[in-house]
């Protein structure tokens, strides 16, 4: 994979709404491959950020049900926990209490959340557009959730 592989999330906020995430296959090759595959299939298009907690993180990626209770039809991923810290702009996979249960849902950290280190798989880092993540409507779920209008890999 290219060193500069990115995932762009068009959130429709602000002027462009683009959140550009540097993918990190060096940290989590299986997770990056899954996110890339789902994005290319259009799985994330129109999917809401269903859990947005100020000072913590914005969670989305449930293209199955759209409400945080589902994922893709693909098998769950084996954990690829790594030493990359959960800091502002870190992109990591959501999962249940079972380590190997990540599927399609992910979260973007608003602030440092290092208590998650080595327990969740970090797969990317926001390079630009963090202001659009900051602007997402808050709530669990938000009354009018922000959405991924389109996800593209480049």
Placed side by side, the strands forming the largest sheet appear as 8-3-4-6-5-7-2-1-9
Major sheet details:
9 strands, antiparallel
Structural class: mainly beta
Query: How many discrete structural domains?
Result: 1
- Helical content stands at 10-25%
**Count of helices?**
2
So what's the CATH class? Answer: Mainly Beta
What is the CATH topology descriptor?
Answer: Cyclophilin
CATH architecture annotation name: Beta Barrel
CATH superfamily: Cyclophilin-like
Mean pLDDT level: 94
Keyphrases for this structure?
single chain, 154 residues, mainly beta, Cyclophilin, 9-stranded antiparallel beta sheet, 2 helices, 11% helix, globular
Structural write-up:
Helices cover 11% and strands 28% of the residues. It is built from 2 helices and 9 strands. It has a 9-stranded antiparallel beta sheet. The chain is globular, with a radius of gyration of 14 Å.
Brief synopsis:
This protein has 154 residues and is mainly beta.
Compile the SSE list and pairings.
Blueprint: E1 6-10, E2 18-23, H1 29-40, E3 47-53, E4 57-60, E5 90-93, E6 106-109, E7 122-128, H2 130-134, E8 147-148, E9 150-153
Antiparallel strand pairs: 1-2, 1-9, 2-7, 3-4, 3-8, 4-6, 5-6, 5-7
